[in-house]
Amino acid sequence: MKKHIFRSILIVAVSVLALCLGLMMSVMYRSLLAEQHGQLKTKLAIITHGIEEGGVYWLENLDMTGYRVTLITSEGVVLYDNMADAASMENHLEREEIADALQSGSGESVRFSSTLTTKTFYQAKRLEDGSILRISFTKNSVLSILLGMLTPVLIILVAAIILSSILASRIAKRTITSLNTLDLEHPLNNNTYDELSPLLLRISHQKRQIESQRSELNKKRDEFSLITQSMNEGLVLLNDKGVIVSINPAAQHVFRTDASCIGKDFFIVERSSEIRGAMKTAADSGHGQTKLRRAGRRYEINASRIDFNNEAVGTAILVFDVTEKALLEQQRREFTANVSHELKTPLQSIMGRAELIENGVAKPEDTPRFGGCIRSEAARLLILIEDIIHLSQLDEGGELPWENVDLYEIATETLELLQDTATDRKVRLSLAGSPASVNGVRGLLSEIIYNLCDNAIKYNHEDGLVEVSVSDDENKAVIRVKDTGIGIPIEHQKRVFERFYRVDKSHSKDTGGTGLGLSIVKHATLLHNGKIEMNSKIGEGTVITITLPK
């Protein structure tokens, strides 16, 4: 405090003195500048006379220290400059003072010179032969005159600083002595400077405010404790070191501990690698999630990083019991699968009878045409049911036959299967790349490539092209399907992988699409921990890239 008061008084004193000296030097500077400006005109007139009498060569012996002299032709070409290489200088015809001199006989300007990197005053005059003589000076040249005055100014400044230091020290000491004797427990009972009364009133007010906030804080803490104690969800609060700060009964039950764990490292209480991974993800990205099975029940663990002033100060762990939810979801999936299987049998019967109608067994002459439509629709419904079954299997995430699969081999087989379809639609197929093996479910990987190629053929133009490439890139395999088709509008690209979503329902109906192909691709890719990227432009085509880890 004493140092602060001392420093403040000293700064004020020195600042006032410096301001006065600055104003004085500014006045002197302006006076010298005006004088220099007048000298500039005089020197211009002298040099003009000298050149007209002695020619251009008269400039070479001229001593113009502090001034810049430039001789320029009427076309703007620099003939001579005492501070720069005239041959390398740009044309000066567009300079303000040159243009004015050519027009009226004389000109002047003030600007920043890129050559001298200083603010420069220019005066120019047209000579009898039409050339332009220009003379200039910079503020720095005048400022150098003022620098000679620094010595007495510095002496005055040092003396003022010493005197100000002595006075400031005494004032600060006397002020601090009074402040150190203040009774802050009873601010309003102090008898001191009147100037301190507002401060003491503020301290008293803040003291009452702090007491009120402390009481409110205790109330909020009790409320928080009451809420967390009655929560069905588990809640654990950790500090930035991973030490347990708070844990409610629900979390205690899940992690098989009690309130005595508060103050201990969380990983001493719970050693689950899944939770550890979720907390690491939360520390990196802000949020982590995992699932936990314990004592026949299923839990969803959400870990969230707690930030304050852009700094991580802890972690909040929420535990949700999703046992019933998982059971209901499983039942829903089973229902969907069962219904799909039950619908499959009558649809096959419809197809059989539709074939009889199509072959003319039925009497009406139009019956074959109607029968063909029935069979076509039945086939489409059958495909739809098969797709629903595929999706249901993917949702269930049951045991699947994982093996080492060559994606290039699957791609070759797929293109052979689709060759007739492509020929009918006048679409060319091509395959490039090399063998690339991944660990996966062969049937699902085949579905991925088949659906991508099938869509690329169906939504292509006549004489279009579908290019399939398979590549092996160290720890991953890449499948790329590129077509020259109609493309997908950007507003639809994020939704084409949704179930039953179609960009153009009428076109999809014509091509026999179910709206589930890309959804199967998405779920099968995610099952293999892969990644999907799409790049599509209207009228140019679509590129879908599948990246699968090995």
The CATH architecture name of the largest domain reads 2-Layer Sandwich
Number of strands: 17
Name the overall outline: flat
- List the domain count as a whole number: 5
| CATH topology type of the largest domain | Heat Shock Protein 90
Strand neighbour order, sheet with most strands: 2-1-5-4-3
Q: Which whole number gives the mean pLDDT?
A: 80
Number of helices: 15
Low-confidence stretches: none
Question: Helicity range of the residues?
Answer: 40-55%
Rg? 44 Å
Largest sheet: 5 strands, antiparallel
Structural category is alpha+beta
Strand content: 15-25%
The CATH superfamily of the largest domain appears as: Histidine kinase-like ATPase, C-terminal domain
For this entry, give a set of tags.
15 helices; Beta-Lactamase; alpha+beta; 50% helix; five-stranded antiparallel beta sheet; 17 strands; 550 residues
Task: Explain this structure.
- By secondary structure, the chain is of the alpha+beta class.
- The chain has five domains: 2-147, Beta-Lactamase; 187-216; 231-321, Beta-Lactamase, CATH 3.30.450.20; 325-393; 401-549, Histidine kinase-like ATPase, C-terminal domain (Heat Shock Protein 90, 2-Layer Sandwich), CATH 3.30.565.10.
- 50% of the residues lie in helices and 23% in strands.
- It has 15 helices and 17 strands.
- The protein has helices spanning 2-54, 96-104, 139-147, 150-180, 197-230, 249-254, 266-269, 273-285, 323-358, 367-396, 407-417, 419-424, 442-458, 505-511, 517-527, and strands at residues 68-72, 78-81, 106-113, 118-126, 132-138, 234-239, 244-247, 287-294, 297-308, 311-321, 402-406, 427-433, 437-441, 464-473, 476-483, 531-537, 541-549.
- The chain has a five-stranded antiparallel beta sheet. Strands 7-6-10-9-8 form a five-stranded antiparallel beta sheet. A five-stranded mixed beta sheet has the order 12-14-15-17-16.
- Helix 11 crosses helix 13 (442-458).
- The radius of gyration is 44 Å and the shape is flat.
